[in-house]
Amino acid sequence: MPVYTMSCFKLPSSLCKKINSILAQYWWASNEDDKKMQWVKWNKLIEAKQKGGSGLRDIKLFNESLLFKHIWRFLANPNLLVSKVLRARYFHNSSLLTAPCPKGASWFEKGVASVRDKFLAGLRKRIGDGSTVDIWEDRWIPDVGGWQTFHQQA
């Protein structure tokens, strides 16, 4: 499994599908010429072992989660050397969360930018003493049933 590569670059969807196909063919003991019965659904194969699945990973989701890890490390540990280098190289004029992806962006920068919106959808700000929270712009209330967020009228 190309885990290091997956943690640095967003793999093309076609490659993820091909790797998933190879995993499924191995599990279902089939080859290109001889199709066998699929006794277990793919969704059951990629379900966690604790939930009764086989624990295989969906490669596309695994790739995205590894890229999420870089974003989280960058945000949670801004004083790490890697965070400082990334900030100086890619995000010196803006935040990782708001920086546009320029035309000549590196593969790493494109990979992080491709999953940033998904990451932001699940990100919530911890309130603490409230000194760093903009209640109108920051996502600090979870979008769960019964909750509605309102935006300030301009």
Automatic annotation (TrEMBL):
Superkingdom, taxonomy of origin: Eukaryota
Protein name, as recorded: Uncharacterized protein
